[in-house]
Design goal:
This protein is α+β, with helices and mostly antiparallel strands and 216 residues long. It contains 7 helices and 10 strands. It has 2 domains: 3-153, Glutaredoxin (3-Layer(aba) Sandwich); 172-216, Antioxidant, Horf6, Chain A, domain 2 (2-Layer Sandwich).
């Protein structure tokens, strides 16, 4: 087995337990297990005091209350030191008037980054790429997104993703392209011929036996 194959097999996978960690942060030592019972958005950035990362952190900080309302904890991460994180957080408050109130992990050992597949040598030998992991209250990974170093993330999409996953957990519904809260949702298709025949006679908004919509 090649090193590449070993690395791929070691990456986190959807609907499997999130890798546990304990790490230093701007809020002191934190562990993933501290947040059991809450949703978690764990996101990495390449480096402190860089312009694209700064725009992302300012945006996350401004929207933090919306994540809190969804019982969701934001956790940032890079392989910078905790002193660098503290200085950067203070700098953002001075320059942009925004407080970063969520913890930022200082992963100098790269332990967390390696567990979550955040280090991509083809992109950078010294920095984490822009990853987003959505972890549910049972601490299973429900979504993963990887962005290149040059492209900032859209916080609206991360928020929408959390809302869609929570809807699925609560009601078993799927969400179509472009879905936002309040839009109609997709009813999972029937898996037997009898159920398919019953579906076309149901009160759902039926396009065909496999394609039905409903209000959340």
């Amino acid at each position: 087995m090649t090193h590449h194959e070993t690395s791929i097999q070691g990456l986190p996978r959807l609907n499997e337990p999130a890798p546990q960690f304990t790490a230093p942060s701007t809020h002191g030592q934190i562990s993933l297990s501290d947040y059991k019972g809450k949703w978690v958005v764990l996101f990495s950035h390449p480096a402190d005091f860089t312009p694209v990362c700064t725009t992302e952190f300012v945006a996350f900080a401004r929207r933090a209350g919306e994540f809190e309302a969804l019982n969701t904890q934001l956790i940032g991460l890079s392989i910078d030191s905790v002193y660098s994180h503290i200085a950067w957080v203070r700098n953002m408050e001075q320059n942009f008037g925004i407080q970063v109130k969520f913890p930022v992990i200082a992963d100098l050992s790269t332990d967390v980054a390696q567990k979550y597949g955040m280090l991509h040598p083809g992109a950078s030998a010294t920095a984490t790429v822009r990853c987003v992991f959505v972890i549910d209250p049972n601490q299973n990974i429900r979504a993963m997104i990887y962005y290149p170093l040059t492209t900032g993330r859209m916080i609206d999409e991360v928020l929408r993703l959390v809302q869609a996953l929570q809807l699925n957990s609560e009601k078993g519904l799927a969400t179509p392209e472009g879905w936002h809260p309040g839009d109609k949702c997709i009813v999972p298709p029937p898996v037997t011929q009898k159920a398919a025949e019953e579906r076309v006679k149901s009160n759902y908004e039926v396009v065909d036996w496999y394609f039905s919509k409903t209000d959340a």
